[in-house]
Amino acid sequence: MSHTVFITGASRGLGLELTRQFLDADSRVFAAAREPKSDTLQSLKSAHRSQLQLLSLDVTDNDQILKAAATLAKQPLNVLINNAGLFLENPFVGGPSENNISTVNTDRWLTVFRVNTIAPLMLTRALRPNLKAGDRGTVAMISSLMGSLTNNHSGGAYSYRSSKAALNATTVSLANDLVDDGIRVVALHPGWLQTDMGGSDAPLDVETSAKGLIAIMRNLEIEQSGCFFDHTGLSIAW
What is the pLDDT of residues 40-96, one digit of tens each? Predict the structure, then answer.
């Protein structure tokens, strides 16, 4: 049985690098993005035509989630990576600031929650039969150290912090709900990365982070389901 992976937010940054590394390891990859016709994904498609299937997916659109799940039909799935995310208060991309109590906006906050917290649960639910049918089914939630309550020493970043903290809570609930299916669910902090989201001053490259995250996914035991790790495998306090 081939090793099959589904990755959201696959058109750039960490999602693109995870797609590349899984393809290089001979996995079959369903790479989902709002704009899957990007030059980078098309180049990968040319090099890995039989292994890579590109899907158009807005993770906040339930109809598109169901359509993506139907594409897999009864295909067993080994790994689902909920990578698509939104960081509106990121100064590197010129987004509106959510960093102080005076500038938080209700509509933007809800948008961040839809992408970072609700969408991963909805996609996991839709692909649950595929994960159950796959060997060592694993759901990787790409979270953040900024979702750790213990490590919040600076305040601010209200929408992003709260959405990732809620994603971590969702991870633990899913780990409990899916344990009888033999499905592992884990929250992963990839590190501060040199991407469009992280900016050029970030200390970690995506290649190193992706390699570490993949090692965790491949070796995760059912007893570790519901845990929170960084890309090196170290536990992070909730």
Answer: 899 999 989 899 999 999 999 999 999 999 999 999 999 999 999 998 765 444 455
DSSP assignment, residue 115?
Answer: I
Taking the C-alpha atoms of residue 15 and residue 17, their distance in angstroms, rounded to an integer, is 5
**By 3-state DSSP, what share of the chain in percent is helix, strand and coil, each rounded to 5?**
45, 15, 40
> What is the Cβ-side half-sphere exposure of residue 124, based on CA atoms within 13 angstroms?
28
Sign of the alpha-carbon dihedral angle for 65, 115, 33, 23: negative
**pLDDT, the chain, mean:** 91
pTM, two decimals, is 0.93
Strands lying side by side in the sheet with 52-56:
52-56, 28-33, 4-7, 79-82, 138-142, 184-189, 228-230
Q: Say how far residue 151 (Cα) sits from the centre of its chain.
A: 21
CB neighbours of residue 219 within 10 Å: 11
Residue 155 φ then ψ, to 5°:
70, -165
Token pair in block for residue 130:
């595929």
What's the CA gap between 46 and 77, in Å, rounded? 23
